[in-house]
Amino acid sequence: MHYMQVPSQVEYERATSVEHALSLLSRPDTRVVAGGHSLIPMMKLRLAQPELLVDISKLPETRQVVDGADAVTIGACVTHAAIEDGAVPDPANGMLAAVAGGIAYRAVRNRGTIGGSLAHADPAADWPSDSSTSWERSSTRTSSCLSLARTASSSIIMQ
Q1: Minimal CA–CA distance to 54: which of 82, 79, 17?
Q2: Under a CB-based contact definition with an 8 Å cutoff, are residues 110 and 79 in contact?
Q3: pLDDT tens-digit readout, 58-107
Q4: For the whole model, what pTM was predicted?
Q5: Which CATH number does the domain housing residue 19 bear?
Q6: Up-side HSE of residue 115: CA atoms within 13 Å toward CB?
Q7: pLDDT at residue 32 above 50?
Q8: For residue 62, which phi and psi values (nearest 5 degrees)?
Q9: C-alpha torsion sign, points 56, 116, 108, 138
Q10: How far apart are the first and last CA of the chain?
Q11: Are 25 and 31 in contact (CB under 8 A)?
Q12: What is the DSSP code string of 47-85?
């Protein structure tokens, strides 16, 4: 017998600004979605059952990369493929590109985001284990992957 994995019913809203996303995230049982490669499989298995999905994929702030004097800040919606292809500064001397290149296969890297992988501690993406001290040890400057702001509902939005 074959059982179809179907997520529970969920509302969806595309955020029009960071402020709009934060206001939507103040609602209980709300999750952020961009690429969906980490969250959607969890929803299909009913390991995550949010009442509302807030799509941040079209917010320009979430795709920005800032190469500052002391840190490289990578927006949550930057894809694994962009990191693999060198479109993102790599203060870890090639480690970011190497980790990104080892995630799943190219189609997943084209849509999957670093924010989703970190927010869900996705074991299929190696970022959670590689995002701590190993980047700082391999770099001459301090690197930070994401700026995180926790909302009251414990959801995460990354900029």
Answers
A1: 17
A2: yes
A3: 999 999 999 888 888 889 899 999 999 999 998 888 888 988 998 888 99
A4: 0.73
A5: 3.30.465
A6: 31
A7: yes
A8: -80, -5
A9: positive
A10: 44
A11: no
A12: S---SEEEE-TT-GGGG-EEE-SS-EEE-TT-BHHHHHT
